[in-house]
Amino acid sequence: xxxxxxxxxxxxxxxxxxxxxxxxxxxxxxxxxxxxxxxxxxxxxxxxxxxxxxxxxxxxxxxxxxxxxxxxxxxxxxxxxxxxxxxxxxxxxxxxxxxxxxxxxxxxxxxxxxxxxxxxxxxxxxxxxxxxxxxxxxxxxxxxxxxxxxxxxxxxxxxxxxxxxxxxxxxxxxxxxxxxxxxxxxxxxxxxxxxxxxxxxxxxxxxxxxxxxxxxxxxxxxxxxxxxxxxxxxxxxxxxxxxxxxxxxxxxxxxxxxxxxxxxxxxxxxxxxxxxxxxxxxxxxxxxxxxxxxxxxxxxxxxxxxxxxxxxxxxxxxxxxxxxxxxxxxxxxxxxxxxxxxxxxxxxxxxxxxxxxxxxxxxxxxxxxxxxxxxxxxxxxxxxxxxxxxxxxxxxxxxxxxxxxxxxxxxxxxxxxxxxxxxxx
Length: 425
Known about the structure:
With 425 residues, the chain is of the alpha/beta class. The chain has 18 helices and nine strands.
């Protein structure tokens, strides 16, 4: 029986995953590998598509890759699903990239050696000159994988990468944003009440609207976003300014080219992301959700303090009733619901400004009802002397899978965000 040529599917998928998550690492990957080094034909097509997309100056992201392949008529059935599954297979690090590129290159060289050896064998069975054939055998490729010392930290990082890789190699329940560390914490949730807490100005709206809601929509989920703080124009202007990398003032002053605004607008309109800026009561929300049942996968409410209160209750009682009502809507209708909530001022008095569940307004009610509690922290919020381009999401409660920790979202210069696990303090 003929043996299959040497190859490593997991390593090939890992290289593609890293390339899609970090453009700088992709540039290193393209210097180490060519499309021909991939054994799986689909992986060769994707690697070539990533190269071509980068060469055109476009951001390397799943949507852009799919659009390029569609333009080139190289997008086949199942490719979009495979593309979404690639995100988060492995954490994008130099160490991981080097390891997986070496594995792909190693098997590629082995295949090349087998083909050349088969050619030499055919020559020897024929009338080829013996000395020439022996010389040909001596030119067979060899692998160049380097041996190196590993520190404990290196081993720990490699082990962590393999844990994450095994997690993403299986079909897991739950919605995925494409941000691997965040999805790791959120796995298993299809119905949940998720509270996002943060001080005023910490970035709750940006986190839920421009990171989570947009990412879920880009992954194909239908998102209904309720902005109860802003009207349509304010929300839309804030979104355009953030995507363009400028302040709202600069946007209003005409410092953004109309072509850029039109491009952002066209991209936004193509997403299954629906916006409502009308305040409502929980009864009105339930009626709207019931009438639109099956039309949405995820709902965002920004923020709970602006939901219409029931007049027969005092302020603190009204908050508890509102949160209880949202919990009941989530449970009865089987929804994935994110709710933004304010923090009290106790974090200002603490030496470590990172928030805790106790810092949430009406924390006992929120902790009792929420499946997940995410608390936001920006060091630049408290220290104006440092570059303020990161947002830490602290998973303070995780009812289903008990995974707690932090992930950091860093704003990229070319737009968008990069997500990584927070280093232990």
